[in-house]
């Protein structure tokens, strides 16, 4: 995480308004990937004895957390109160002295809420403020409702978590592209329907994953603009007759625009549904990647090996090295789909108004996205690829049969369908004779062709070139194809795209930091 971000080590640190709160962007505790190198637990025995990767541990930690949405949103509520009080004074709804007393009272109640979670809900919090400074505390709520206030703090919370997720995927893409750059000539088999299809390279496969990640980032970035709108000032649903300044208080809280309609301000839920949908789409793609890596790491494939730091053991079977990080990431993906279904179901056939029927996007669901992304980033970086085994499969497992059919079309002037059927018969004969693809001979092909009244004119050297998966890859130089030159173009485009998205992210984080400093400056001026 960027050191300019606001890092909140405990919720209490947010409650205490101080000079150290130098950014509106309220961050979750930062994962220090270096401080836990010796992280151990009782399961680190057998073939995976040694340190568990902190990114892997995060997959366990998020499940064990019991953070409620109210707890997650409270730091933003504390910011909102202060910004709203300043706006009330500047609109001459309350006096400067009243604003000062309320702001000082808010600091005191924040300290109480640090020790008493019950105060993190608004009504008990307001009661504590009134107890602290008298009935003046009730003026803080002029012109607003819990409806618009909760929707505002929820958007602030989601906005920060959205930036966290975007940042994590940008880092994930960086590792994917780095791994691809080191495997431009790692020839392997691409599969369709879990059956051998055609020769590619591992880099070609990884750039497909990168393209999927880029599309997920596009969806998240588009969503940000729809979340970054302030509903504050909508009141319960019909607004207020008080002369509040919705634009000003929204800007103090870092929003770039307003939810225009006051009913939409408290009833709208599509941004939450969209966030859940984007998560489900992204996590489904991540799960598919994890599933494929898990398949390649099986004892039967032996094409990939997980670093011990991302694997687990069996308590009974000494030989086991289980792909736990992959499975837990896939589990997190399933939970993301479940969260989307819960939200959609809660919205089905309810009225278009503020309603407690609507399911929110829970903190744990967002933590699941972050944990699995971090785990898959570290796992990809440390993944060991068995290049020899991958090439062996490509040579032996009939992945070049399309190349062979193309050779027949070029050399014998036959249509592709006839060539397709001749090669299919050759494959059947090879399998029946327990031959691998690289053991197919010219005579085998000519014998099958003659039964179909086809004459062939191919040489052994031409056959061997058609059957060679390395040469097959090199021949495919078109855009998006597996030749190293074409894949390098995709890597270069991916790096440029990822760099642009990183610049966008840093710009949004900078904007939030600037709005935070502006608000803190006003709070300081009003409180002195």
What is the structure about, briefly put?
It catalyses: 2-(N(omega)-L-arginino)succinate = fumarate + L-arginine. Helix content is 61%, strand content 5%.
Low-confidence stretches: 1-24, 31-40
N-to-C CA distance: 34 Å
Backbone CA Rg: 30 Å
Element string (H = helix, E = strand): EHEHHHHHEEHEHEHHEHHEHHHHHHH
What does this molecule look like?
By secondary structure, the chain is mostly helical. Helices cover 61% and strands 5% of the residues. The protein is built from 19 helices and eight strands. Strands 1-2 form a two-stranded parallel ribbon. A hairpin with a 2-residue loop joins strand 3 and strand 4 (195-201). Helix 4 (96-115) crosses helix 5 (122-133), helix 6 packs parallel to helix 12 (363-382) and helix 10 packs antiparallel against helix 11. The chain is elongated. 43% of the residues are buried. This is Argininosuccinate lyase. It catalyses: 2-(N(omega)-L-arginino)succinate = fumarate + L-arginine. InterPro entries: Arg_succ_lyase_C (IPR029419), Argininosuccinate_lyase (IPR009049), Fumarase/histidase_N (IPR024083), Fumarate_lyase_fam (IPR000362), Fumarate_lyase_N (IPR022761), L-Aspartase-like (IPR008948).
Q: Main attributes?
A:
single chain, 528 residues, mainly alpha, two-stranded antiparallel ribbon, 19 helices, 5% strand, disordered N terminus
């Amino acid at each position: 995480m960027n050191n300019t971000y606001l890092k909140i080590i405990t919720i209490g640190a947010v409650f205490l308004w101080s000079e150290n709160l130098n950014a509106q962007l309220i961050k979750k505790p930062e994962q220090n990937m270096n401080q836990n190198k010796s992280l151990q637990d009782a399961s680190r025995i057998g073939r995976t004895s040694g340190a568990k990767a902190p990114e892997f541990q995060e997959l366990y930690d998020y499940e064990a957390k019991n953070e409620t949405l109210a707890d997650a949103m409270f730091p933003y509520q504390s910011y909102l109160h202060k910004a709203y009080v300043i706006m009330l004074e500047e609109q001459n709804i309350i006096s400067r002295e009243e604003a000062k007393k309320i702001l000082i009272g808010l600091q005191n109640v924040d300290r109480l809420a640090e020790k008493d979670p019950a105060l993190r809900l608004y009504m008990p919090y307001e009661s504590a403020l009134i107890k602290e400074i008298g009935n003046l505390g009730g003026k803080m709520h002029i012109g607003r409702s819990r409806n618009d206030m909760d929707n505002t703090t929820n958007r602030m919370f989601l906005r920060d978590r959205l930036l966290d997720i975007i940042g994590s995927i940008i880092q994930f893409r960086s590792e994917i592209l780095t791994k691809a750059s080191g495997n431009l000539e790692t020839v392997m088999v691409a599969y369709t329907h879990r059956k051998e299809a055609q020769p590619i390279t591992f880099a070609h496969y990884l750039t497909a994953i990168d393209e999927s990640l880029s599309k997920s980032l596009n969806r998240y970035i588009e969503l940000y603009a729809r979340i970054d709108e302030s509903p504050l000032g909508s009141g319960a649903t019909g607004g207020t007759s008080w002369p509040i300044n919705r634009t000003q208080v929204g800007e103090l809280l870092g929003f770039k625009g307003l939810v225009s309609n006051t009913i939409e301000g408290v009833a709208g839920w599509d941004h939450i549904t969209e966030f859940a949908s984007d998560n489900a789409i992204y996590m489904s793609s991540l799960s598919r990647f994890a599933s494929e890596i898990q398949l390649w790491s099986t004892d039967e494939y032996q094409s990939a090996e997980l670093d011990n730091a991302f694997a687990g053991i069996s308590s009974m079977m000494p030989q086991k090295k289980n792909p736990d990080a992959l499975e837990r990431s896939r589990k997190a993906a399933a939970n993301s789909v479940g969260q989307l279904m819960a939200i959609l179901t809660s919205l089905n056939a309810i009225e278009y108004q503020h309603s407690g029927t609507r399911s929110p996007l829970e903190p744990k669901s967002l933590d699941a996205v972050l944990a699995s992304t971090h785990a898959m980033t570290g796992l990809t970086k440390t993944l060991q690829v068995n290049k020899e085994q991958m090439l062996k499969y490509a040579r032996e497992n009939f992945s070049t049969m399309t190349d062979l059919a193309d050779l027949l079309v070029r050399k014998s002037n036959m249509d592709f369908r006839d060539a397709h059927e001749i090669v299919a018969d050759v494959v059947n004969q090879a399998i029946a004779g327990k031959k691998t693809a690289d053991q197919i001979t010219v005579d085998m092909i000519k014998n099958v062709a003659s039964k179909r009244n086809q004459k062939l004119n191919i040489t052994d050297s031409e056959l061997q070139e058609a059957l060679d998966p390395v040469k097959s890859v090199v021949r495919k130089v078109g855009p998006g194809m597996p030749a190293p030159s074409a894949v390098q173009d995709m890597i270069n485009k991916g790096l440029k795209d990822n760099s642009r998205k990183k610049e966008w992210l840093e710009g949004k984080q900078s904007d939030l930091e600037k709005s935070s400093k502006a608000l803190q400056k006003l709070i300081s001026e009003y409180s002195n």
